[in-house]
């Protein structure tokens, strides 16, 4: 399972990359705005250079086919790590089909149903991003969406990868792994949380005490 960090914050990306377990980065317009990014393309180039061969999802702002194609082609030319992130709307699906024919990788975002995931996959999306935390927020079961998409993609040998998004805590991540999501994207804080267990801290404390007695 690959781990992406869901942030536009360069310090967080640097820290996550330094952990040695980072496979990529996802961003979205809200995350870019939160960091006060003005030159989006320069920011993406910096991120790409920070993640080695890692995959970097760069989201288009346009919502019409021509606009999505124009923005997406420019984003794809910025760096070979870029995957063009396109919203799950009819114009976006048309664009994903064309990007696929042009050999440009895509991530279909804002997926909230299995039908949407299937449509994106049929258009050739490299990734689909089901937002499980946002579904949980409104009283739906985000995890069952991951399970349903996994089942459908396995039924038909669909190669589109499931990029579980809107992950809020460790249990989300573990359940996504159990369901067979290909990738999980999560905030830096969630990645940090994966390392933690009170019994590890307690055990290490005791080992260190006992080691001091020996040497
Ligand atoms: C995914 O690509 C999105 O950027 C992200 O996971 C959304 O998460 P949120 O619901 O925490 O904003």
Protein model, in words:
This protein is α/β, with parallel strands linked by helices and 215 residues long. Helix content is 54%, strand content 17%. It is built from eleven helices and eight strands. It has helices spanning 10-18, 29-34, 40-50, 65-78, 90-101, 114-122, 132-137, 142-156, 170-179, 188-194, 198-214, and strands at 2-6, 24-26, 55-59, 82-87, 106-111, 127-130, 161-164, 183-186. The protein has an eight-stranded parallel barrel, surrounded by eight helices. Helix 4 (65-78) packs across helix 5 and helix 8 runs parallel beside helix 9. The protein is globular. The model has no long low-confidence stretch (mean pLDDT 97). Erythose-4-phosphate (E4P) binds at residues 6, 26, 28, 109, 129, 131, 133-134, 165-166, 185.
Descriptive terms for the model:
215 residues; binds erythose-4-phosphate
Tell me the strand order in the biggest sheet: 1-2-3-4-5-6-7-8
Reported for the largest beta sheet, the result is: 8 strands, parallel, barrel
Q: Determine the mean pLDDT.
A: 97
Total strand segments? 8
Rg is 19 Å
SS class: alpha/beta
How many H/I helical runs? 11
Low-confidence stretches: none
How far apart are the first and last residues' alpha carbons, in Å? 41 Å
What small molecules does the structure contain?
erythose-4-phosphate
The outline comes out as globular
- How are helices and strands ordered from N to C? EHEHHEHEHEHEHHEHEHH
Q: What is the strand content?
A: 15-25%
Helix content: 40-55%
Topology of this structure?
Layout: E1 2-6, H1 10-18, E2 24-26, H2 29-34, H3 40-50, E3 55-59, H4 65-78, E4 82-87, H5 90-101, E5 106-111, H6 114-122, E6 127-130, H7 132-137, H8 142-156, E7 161-164, H9 170-179, E8 183-186, H10 188-194, H11 198-214
Parallel strand pairs: 1-2, 1-8, 2-3, 3-4, 4-5, 5-6, 6-7, 7-8
The structure holds erythose-4-phosphate (E4P).
């Amino acid at each position: 399972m690959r781990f992406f960090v869901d942030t536009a914050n360069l310090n967080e990306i640097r820290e996550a990359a330094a952990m040695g377990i980072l496979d990529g980065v996802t961003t979205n317009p809200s995350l870019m705005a939160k960091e006060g990014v003005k030159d989006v393309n320069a920011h993406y180039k910096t991120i790409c250079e920070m993640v080695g061969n890692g995959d970097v999802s760069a989201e288009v702002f346009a919502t019409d086919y021509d606009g999505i194609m124009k923005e997406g082609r420019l984003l794809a030319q910025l760096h070979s790590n870029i995957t063009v992130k396109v919203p799950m709307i009819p114009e976006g699906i048309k664009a994903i089909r064309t990007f696929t024919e042009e050999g440009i990788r895509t991530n279909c975002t804002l997926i909230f149903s299995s039908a949407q995931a299937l449509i994106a996959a049929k258009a050739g999306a490299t990734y689909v991003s089901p937002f499980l935390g946002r579904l949980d927020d409104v009283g739906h079961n985000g995890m069952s969406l991951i399970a349903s998409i996994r089942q459908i993609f396995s039924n038909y040998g669909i190669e589109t990868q499931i990029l579980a998004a809107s992950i809020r805590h460790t249990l989300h991540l573990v359940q996504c792994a159990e369901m067979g999501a290909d990738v999980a994207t999560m905030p830096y804080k969630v990645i940090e949380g994966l390392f933690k267990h009170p019994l590890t801290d307690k055990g290490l404390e005791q080992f260190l005490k006992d080691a001091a007695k020996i040497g």
